[in-house]
Amino acid sequence: MDVSHLLDELNDAQRQAVTAEDGHVLVLAGAGSGKTRVLVHRIAWLIQVHHVSPMGLLAVTFTNKAAGEMRGRVGRLLNLRPDGLWIGTFHGICHRLLRMHAAEVGLPDTFQILDSEDQYRLVRRVIRDMELDEGEHPPRQVQGFINHHKDDGRRPHQIEHFDRSFQARQVEIYQRYQDYCERSGLVDFAELMLRTVELLRDRPERRAHYQSRFGHILIDEFQDTNTLQYALVRLLAGDNNRLFVVGDDDQSIYGWRGARVENVAHFNRDFQPDVIRLEQNYRSTRTILEAANRVIDHNDDRMGKNLWTEGEQGEPIHLFAAFNAEEESEFVIARIHDWINQGGKPSDCAVLYRSNAQSRLFEQALLREDIPYRVYGGLRFFERAEIKDAMAYLRLIHNPHDDAAFERVINVPARGIGEQTVARIREHARAQGQSLGQAVTELIAQGGLSPRAARSASAFLQLIDNLVKATESASLAETVSALVRQVELVAWYQSREPADRAEAREENLAELVRAADSFDQPFEDEQAGLSVMASFLSQAALEAGEHQAERWEDCVQLMTLHSAKGLEFPLVFLAGMEEGLFPHQKSIEEPGRLAEERRLCYVGMTRAMQRLYITHAESRQTYGQTNFSRPSRFVAEIPDELIESIRSGPHVTPAGRSFHSAPRAEAGGLRLGASVRHAKFGPGTVVSLEGQGPNARIQVNFESAGAKWLVLAYANLELVA
Ligand code: ATP
Ligand code: MG
User: Fold this and answer.
1) Of 191, 220, 363, 618, which one is the catalytic site residue?
2) What CATH class does 112-184 carry?
3) Residue 647, SS3?
4) pLDDT in tens, 23-54
5) 88 lines ligand 1 (CB under 6 A)
6) Looking at the domain that runs over 4-100+193-280, which CATH code has it been given?
């Protein structure tokens, strides 16, 4: 049989990995060096040359999308569908195993998966049932405690604690939560992994079965595995099976979610694999590659590697400093337009950003230009739950008889209005031909609700009423900002969701205030006598209803840096490269997290094949306030000679833009070196002054808060003698 096509287009090191005869293999190599390609060819090689049955192979990747792609590629290489081949994510594979062995691990056949929101609710319920103080045992924190121990493989009885201590209480909650799950046939995410590990650990016959079945185990993106996943790999490997593991320590970006890059070193120690390094990059131009290498060089504790390319030098990296975020998005869309006009495909273009909230402006500009796009790993802006919640309040302020909005938020945040009460209100409204708002008012007056429900419902009506009054003469942005604050939406998400999720929601709400602030009422609406709020509401509804491009459609790709892992695109934009945004504010002070942000930057840059744009905005608004930020430190880590700076043209330059003029007059004695005091940040020293007039800004090094840029006009600095 001719198998040469399996080795064509592989370099020597890659071929060595694909054809390795004995033992385990660790392919440790940088981005774009063909790790995933080698793994796919290895599967095909084993099936075709070594006649390994597809049933004897287990391949693990990071996302379902990657798994689908891998299956397709193996199929094309072999010219047939590799039926029986197990390719999937760790969670997917564990789920499959548990379904097959439910009874043995003590689960009913009908067991259900508990997602993280359901898990939170259940934990809270257990805490309440135990009559514990939620202030002392915040459900979200207890949820974290449970997951952390599960991820490390510990059941309640394995956690050390002193009698009657705080820890003892937490362990007890964990135990009761677990009992409840068992009784109801519920399995949370960490439990999927843990149960499977226990199944294989405690049942020798099962372990023997799977060990003899999966003679070859192949794992992509190994640097992002956690403790339980590694334990599972060890159990499945046994003494005889062959592991083929590929990864890149420089691309470990899930440390914040429990991934342990040390697993690469542990694997080396536990299995003594043949380590194969791939050093040739086939993805990017020399310029892009060198820039990425130089950035990641700033991290310590790297395993270290050398990456080169035979590819052409390519274009310089294009760096665009936008005046503000709108200008940034317009610039990006204009470049995408150029690309398409020159015959490129929309799907060649990817816009990558640090946080989901950043997608909005790009979506808006793409919609305006009628370019199809798709947001990966997240919903489009106006379809996100928190945006819909806030918009529902806005609709109620606009029109208290908006029943859909009323239903959506009557119990958001939770105020003890249950399904039964809502049903009662609905029924009354139907009978009387009233809106839900009217119905509930009447029911309260007639004593038609239980005292508790009546109290809660009045509070809700009162809240809306207060908002209507408070915002009578407010601008649209002020109204949105007021409602987000008064409804306490952020606190509500924080109380029930993991910190990172709640944080993303908070950012999106800030983005909504900004959207309101920059909203330009269309002329037709104004002519038609619509209020600004009415225009805004209808525009948002239209945008939410607009259908996202179909999966197969040729469309521009929008996604966070995290979800871009493993992918590649001819044209890449890294947007919002600003200190505070990327690296993210929360990571700046922690060296470990900062290093992870830098790896994320490396992942982002190395997605680009031909052309890479890096953009940042000098000002951005959050909660109606203009923030000035400096370009990300990662930009400064790219050598100047690889960059071509693009400045915005005069036509888009707003008047008064003078950031780059020399430091100016020492306004009111505020000169470099002056000692000042700020109401919130305390005492500090002036270290920089830029711009003039309303744009003037000042950098102060605060004794406790560190260096900050402030807008001079609003900073209210007090000069200290
Ligand atoms: P990442 O670290 O980003 O996951 P990777 O190491 O998995 O990257 P691949 O995605 O497998 O890299 O390969 C990068 C690109 O280089 C792909 O387009 C792949 O087809 C191509 N490529 C890899 N090896 C070769 C080769 N020997 N000849 C030609 N092209 C290759
Ligand atoms: Mg890969």
Assistant:
1) 220
2) mainly alpha
3) strand
4) 999 999 999 999 999 999 999 999 999 999 99
5) no
6) 3.40.50.300
